[in-house]
Design goal:
4 helices, about 240 residues, alpha+beta, Ribosomal Protein S5, domain 2, five-stranded mixed β-sheet, 9 strands
Length: about 240
């Protein structure tokens, strides 16, 4: 039995279709060192969303950086042609470009650009499977890849999104939940500093609802940050043992 027969996103016991509570995130799998030829890399799964990120550099910039004593962070996001049924159709490259800009905005304040002056760090993200929460997964995975590459960062960045469906707030939504949302929140957070690097609201929100949504997202990012740190420590330990 469903509580909402029209949208059918919550069951009668208050859980979602994947048995999570509204305030719970999807199971996450994180792994660094996914691409051996890159300076750093990471692979992330959040439910059915799968992302891989490669980092190259610092290396000499291909673009002129005259009169600049800081480095350049380049971000490029692509979706595989099989990531979703909609990929490959006309206009889909728009979201690639938009996600590239948003990834850069989420990371630029966390990366110490002064640590690699007059050079460039390139971040390449590839979405292998789109299952909802794509941008947060990309940002989280990219932050791990930068750390794996040894790029100096002020803090790691975790990201999460939330969908508002009717009166319900659904943290870390699936693709189906996103497709039926009335509004959404996206947040990227430096998890130790508790500093937001990016936040976006869509739809109409009351101040009370917006505060509740932000609190849920910030708490989820902090917890995700702890998982990211464990991943980095464990993968570094494994690498040391292998050598």
């Amino acid at each position: 039995m469903f509580l909402n027969s029209q949208k059918a996103l919550l069951k009668s016991d208050g859980t979602r279709l994947d048995d999570r509570l509204p305030s719970h995130v999807r199971p996450a799998f994180l792994k660094t060192g996914a691409v051996s030829v890159a300076a750093g890399s990471a692979y992330a799964e959040f439910g059915s969303t799968k992302v891989i990120v490669s980092v190259y550099g610092p290396r000499e910039s291909k673009k002129a950086q005259a009169f600049s004593d800081i480095g350049r962070l380049n971000c490029d996001v692509k979706f595989t042609s099989f990531a979703t049924p909609l990929r490959g159709k006309a206009g889909q490259d728009v979201s690639d470009k938009e996600f590239s800009v948003l990834l850069h905005k989420a990371l630029e304040d966390a990366v110490d650009l002064h640590s690699f002056p007059k050079t460039t760090v390139d971040v390449f993200a590839l979405v292998l499977q789109s299952g909802g929460g794509d941008l947060p997964a990309i940002i989280t995975c990219a932050s791990l890849a930068l750390a794996d590459a040894g790029i100096v960062m002020h803090d790691i960045v975790a990201a999460i999104s939330l969908s508002c469906v009717g009166k319900d707030l659904l943290l870390d939504p699936t693709y189906k939940e996103e497709s039926q949302q009335d509004g959404s929140v996206f947040i990227a957070l430096m998890t130790s500093r508790r500093e937001i690097t990016q936040v976006t609201f869509t739809g109409e929100w009351s101040s009370t609802k917006a505060s509740e949504a932000l609190e849920l997202c910030c708490d989820a990012c902090v917890k995700l940050g702890e998982v990211m740190r464990v991943c980095l420590k464990e993968d570094a330990a494994e690498a040391t043992e292998d050598t």
